[in-house]
Specification:
Blueprint: H1 3-15, H2 18-21, E1 25-31, E2 34-46, E3 49-57, E4 68-76, E5 81-90, E6 99-103, E7 110-111, H3 117-127
Antiparallel strand pairs: 1-2, 2-3, 3-4, 4-5, 5-6, 5-7
């Protein structure tokens, strides 16, 4: 199977939700009172970028009546940036119940702030794999 077809197959599987159906979620912390988890088994490398799934369990229903959401994140490991590729919202905790929201259009790139849960996600995703960083580039604070 060619690399191009393999990439298309992987993207389609993730878009259909197969990438999150058998997720092994690990608790990362709280963000604005909501539990945030990472699926370490979903980490994929795309050249110098890293992809990973994030799950947020909301403590109370959101304005869209969501109790959980999953977001597929892409990190630019060299430029300390993140963007959201896919996002799904569910009526129950841990992706249970009906899927109420599907966002399949990528968002714009944003800087990853130090001391945040997203920075922790970036560090986990970007150091897994064959990345060689001279003099700790990933952990260097912004100028």
């Amino acid at each position: 199977m060619s690399r191009r077809w393999l990439h298309i197959f992987v993207f389609m599987a993730l878009a259909l939700g197969l990438g999150t159906a058998q997720a092994a979620w690990t608790y990362m912390g709280h963000l604005d009172g909501h539990a945030v988890l990472i699926d370490r088994s979903s980490i994929q490398l795309k050249k110098r970028n890293a992809l990973v799934w994030m799950l947020t369990n909301y403590s109370t229903p959101t304005s869209q009546q969501l109790l959980s959401s999953t977001t597929y994140l892409e990190f630019d490991c060299d430029k300390n940036k993140v963007r959201y590729l896919l996002a799904y919202g569910y009526e129950g905790q841990m992706q249970s119940g009906a899927r109420l929201i599907s966002v399949v259009q990528p968002g714009g790139w944003e800087a990853v702030a130090f001391g945040t849960i997203i920075k922790s996600f970036e560090q986990i995703a970007c150091v897994r794999g064959p990345f060689i960083r001279p003099q700790g580039e990933l952990n260097k604070p912004p100028k």
